[in-house]
Structure formats: structure tokens, C-alpha cells
Amino acid sequence: MHTMNQEEKNNTQQIKTFALELGFDMVKITSAEKLSAPGEFYEKWLQEGNAADMEYLKENTEKRYTPEKILTGARSIIVLGLNYYKKDYIFPEKFSIAKYAMGRDYHKVITSKLKKFAAFLEKISLSNGQKSSEKSYVDFGPTMERAFAAKSHMGFIGKNACIITREYGSYIFLSEIITTLELTPDEPTKWKGQCGSCTRCIDICPTRAIKPDKTIDSRLCISYLTIENRGAIPIELRPKIGNWLFGCDLCQDICPHNVRAQPTRVTDFQNIPLGTQAGGSVELSLGGASLGGLKSLSLGQILTIETDEEFVKIFAGTPLTRAKRRGLIRNACVVAGNLKLTELLPQLKKLSQSDDEMIAEHAAWAIQQSCP
User: Fold this and answer.
1) Is the residue at 189 inside a domain?
2) Residue-range definition of the domain harbouring residue 155
3) Can you give the pLDDT at residue 287?
4) What Cα–Cα distance (Å) separates residue 254 from each residue in 81, 216, 221, 351?
5) Burial of 265 from C-beta contacts in 10 A (0-12 / 13-18 / 19+)
6) 3-state DSSP: the chain helix, strand, coil percent, rounded to 5?
7) Beta bridge partners of 364
8) Residue 148: in which H helix or E strand, if any?
9) Is residue 116 part of a domain?
């Protein structure tokens, strides 16, 4: 038994060291036990309709909080955090894009690291005379990543439903590796983070999507409405979208814990001359993507993208592809209307005649807002 414990400790230390060498900012380990209370919370969240039309969230629900159903023989979960914080960039038209999207697609960045991690874990297990199995995810698999991150003592789940860490606040990407290796779980830290009586994130949300019980109603969330939503944005919510073209950071930017946010060290997340910075116009780039050679991203340019092929050529390798061409044009119409950008009326009038009913309706709405 003593030998096994020492082997676990050695493996755990090697894994943590390797994670940091790979460039992850945080690494914690927890047992692969079923999450009972978070699982019940998730099922209730679904039953109340908070997932909107994101059908994939309603599939394999028990898997999300029961690692054994994902990987037979699961013993441990390696929770990894990657800081992505950067200061906001100002676009000429004053629209906003969520910080996480201002760089190369994090799925690609992290998946590359996880592949190297898998090879390392295989090496460790074989050196101990066993063959381990693993499953890894970057928020695309059936696992409650924030709940497991909280269980690993990486941080706590705030009222805005984000995982909040002592070191980086909430601006971290999470990924996890479920493994059959027996590893030593992290102990609780001295830092007992909490929201206390603070309600800043609840108060600042324009659509009132954040509930006091840490529930997010996706049907009202600006991030959902501008990214995952494939249909029209409800008319009553459009003015509340404000200048958010893609995603929203309001509930994170207002959080007192984010005074500890630190600039990311990841080059792929830093390469974001998307628009203009001090010194004038720069080559438009998202994490190394040329974005079709455009000099700066503008709503006018988005409104003139005519085909899906053109859209992919411009935004390939970036998070903005998630909204798809129709979604990004829809969003641009709403922002143009909210900002009353009359210089975009020619593009909006053309779109109001589009065969795509959703785009035509949003363009017509924007024209009404710009020319009341």
C-alpha cells in the first residue's frame, strides 16, 4: 500500500510539472467520483428551459457528472487552466467582442497541448507496468468542467456561473483529462474565495440573465444570443445587446475578483490587432489568421460578406466562426441599429432585400433604429 501511495505521489508530481511545462497556468487533480449535487442542479437547470435550443446540452446528461460513464475505470480528473486575459481593444465603430474570442480558437490551441499530454500519460503508465486510458475535453464533451474545477479546488463558482480563481480571476479556459490512473487529489487551499453579498454581475447584466442562485438563463444571455443562437434575436432584447457583436464580458469585467487578472502569456491569444491600436491601423489578425487581408474589422465589412465560403476564408481559425455568417451579419445589424450608424444605411438597405428572411428582418430593424 505504501508503495502504491508513493507511486501515486510521484505520478501526480510529474503530471503537474509537465502541465506547467506545456504552458498551462493552472493544474489541479480531483477524484473521478460522481458529482451528486451539481448533477441535480444541472438537471433542474435543463428542466427549467435555461438551455434554450442548445440541444447538445440535453444529451448524455448523466455522463456530464458521472465520469465512470465516460471512461470505464475512471479514477482521477486532471483539471487544467489557461489564462486568456487581455485588455479590451477599441474598434473605430465602438463595437465589442468578448475577450476570449480575440485570438486564435482556443479549442485548437488547447487540443494541441492535450495530445502531447496524452502521450506523456501513456509514457508514465507504461513505465509503471500498466496501460492507462484517458478522455480529454475542451468544453466540447459531456462533462461539467466548472463543477469539477471547483471540486479540484482550482477556484469557486461565482454568481455569474464562472469559475473564479485566486491567481487569474475568471479569465481562464478550462480543459480536463479523465484518466484511469490513480492520482493524489489536491487538498483545499487556505484561500476561501466567495461572492459574499456582492451582486455586481447580476446588476450589470442588461437582460437580467443572471439569477441569484448562480443560474444563467441562456434565453436572455447576450453570449448565447450572439453566438449559439441560430434564429432571430427577440426584438425586445435587441436594444439590450448594446454594442456586443460577439459574446459579452460585462459580468466578468465588473467582478471584483478580476482585479487580479494578468495578461496572458499565450502568443496565440495575444495576436489580436483586430481593429486599431495606438499608432493607427494594423494588419487585421486573429491569432495569426490573415482575415482576408482586411486592415481593420468593421461592421460595414461584415455586412457585405455574401457567401459562407467568403466568411470561412476571412474568419477560419478564430472563435467568430461559431456564429456562422448569418449569425454574425444578424449581430452586426443589431449593433449598427443600437449605435445608430447611419453611414451603414446603404449596406443595411441592401440586406433588407435579402432572400434570407432573418437577415432581412434584422436589417430592416436596424434601419428603423438609425432613422426613427
Assistant:
1) no
2) 2-85+100-179
3) 41
4) 21, 17, 16, 36
5) exposed
6) 45, 10, 40
7) none
8) helix 145-151
9) yes
Set of cell numbers at residue 141 = 464533451
Q: Which amino acid is at 327?
A: G
> How far are the Cα atoms of 40, 64, 144, 184, 282 from residue 36, in angstroms, in the given order?
6, 11, 12, 21, 50
The mean pLDDT values, 10 residues at a time, for the chain of 372 residues are 67 96 97 94 95 92 94 97 89 88 91 94 83 90 93 97 97 97 93 93 98 94 98 98 97 97 91 40 42 62 93 86 97 97 96 98 97 77
The residues assigned a catalytic role are 139
CB 344 within 8 A of CB 303: yes
In the prediction, which pLDDT does 327 show? Answer: 98
Q: Evaluate whether residue 204 is within a structural domain.
A: no
**Is 312:305 a contact under the CB 8 Å cutoff?**
no
Structural domains of the chain, count? 1
Q: What is the pLDDT of residue 131?
A: 84
Q: Is residue 357 part of a domain?
A: no
- Do residues 118 and 178 touch, judged by C-beta distance below 8 A? no
Instruction: Tell which residue, 222, 210, 272, has the closest CA to residue 247.
Output: 222
Residue 345 backbone dihedrals phi, psi, to 5 degrees: -55, -40
Report helix angle 324-338 to 308-315, nearest 10.
80
